[in-house]
């Protein structure tokens, strides 16, 4: 059993399973309203990604430049926490619901899915802090999982909010803020 717990691919598999199930949850009107199921699936998607970079998981580690990696990892975690801040204003763990107001201000005016931006980068921050090469290498996989989940979530958001959400889609990028030029 300890071998399994120490295997980074075990944790990566559980996280991928959680992300896949979360995608199904967000796309479902019926299952998407089940708060307990939503919490369980988010737990399944997130906890393995937090455990994967930790020292008890056997994997190659970056040793060179550790103080710099730790500093960069802390900065990435802090930025991720900033993008997680809108969570206090929405009904988390469930599919979109037209009875909830559509959020278009604050970070939602910069990116349509600030919580998903956090979900891409917080595992990278932990992986940098602990020097987890596998954790760092999985960042593009987490980005792909988030991209797929946001695709499905956006279909649900259009279904729930219609033209109001389509207008937001036209004005605000999905995950990565646009850099605006201030010159003429």
Key phrases:
Four Helix Bundle (Hemerythrin (Met), subunit A); mainly alpha; 184 residues
Describe this protein's structure.
- The protein is 62% helix and 0% strand.
- It has 184 residues and is mostly helical.
- The chain has a single domain, classed as Four Helix Bundle (Hemerythrin (Met), subunit A) (Up-down Bundle), CATH 1.20.120.
- The mean pLDDT is 88.
Quick structural overview:
The chain has helices spanning about 1-5, 10-25, 35-50, 65-85, 115-130, 135, 140-160, 165-170. By secondary structure, the chain is an all-alpha fold.
CATH class: Mainly Alpha
Most strands sheet:
none
Oligomeric form: single chain
Strand-residue proportion: under 5%
Q: What is the third-level CATH name, the topology?
A: Four Helix Bundle (Hemerythrin (Met), subunit A)
In the residues, how many domains can be counted?
1
Helix and strand succession?
HHHHHHHH
Mean pLDDT: 88
Q: Which CATH architecture?
A: Up-down Bundle
- Dominant shape: globular
How far is it from the N-terminal to the C-terminal residue, by CA? Answer: 63 Å
Q: Any low-confidence stretches, pLDDT <50, length ≥5? A: none
Helix tally? 8
Give the strand tally: 0
* SSE-based structural type: mainly alpha
Helix content: 55-70%
Task: Chart the SSEs and their pairings.
Elements: H1 2-5, H2 8-27, H3 35-51, H4 66-84, H5 114-130, H6 133-137, H7 139-161, H8 163-171
Helix pairs in contact: 2-3, 2-7, 4-5, 5-7, 7-8
């Amino acid at each position: 059993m300890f071998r399994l717990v120490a295997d980074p691919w075990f944790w990566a598999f559980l996280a991928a399973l959680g992300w896949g199930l979360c995608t199904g949850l967000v796309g479902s009107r019926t299952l998407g309203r089940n708060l307990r199921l939503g919490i369980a699936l988010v737990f399944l998607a997130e906890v393995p990604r937090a455990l994967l970079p930790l020292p008890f998981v056997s994997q190659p580690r970056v040793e060179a430049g550790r103080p710099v990696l730790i500093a960069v990892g802390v900065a990435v975690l802090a930025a991720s926490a900033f993008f997680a801040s809108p969570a206090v204003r929405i009904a988390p763990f469930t599919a979109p619901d037209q009875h909830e107001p559509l959020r278009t201000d604050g970070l939602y005016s910069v990116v349509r899915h600030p919580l998903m931006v956090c979900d891409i980068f917080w595992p990278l921050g932990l992986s940098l802090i602990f020097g987890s090469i596998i954790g760092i290498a999985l960042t593009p996989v987490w980005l792909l999982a988030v991209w797929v989940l946001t695709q499905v979530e956006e279909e649900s958001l259009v279904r729930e909010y219609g033209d109001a959400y389509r207008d937001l889609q036209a004005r605000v990028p999905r995950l990565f803020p646009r850099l605006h030029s201030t010159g003429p």
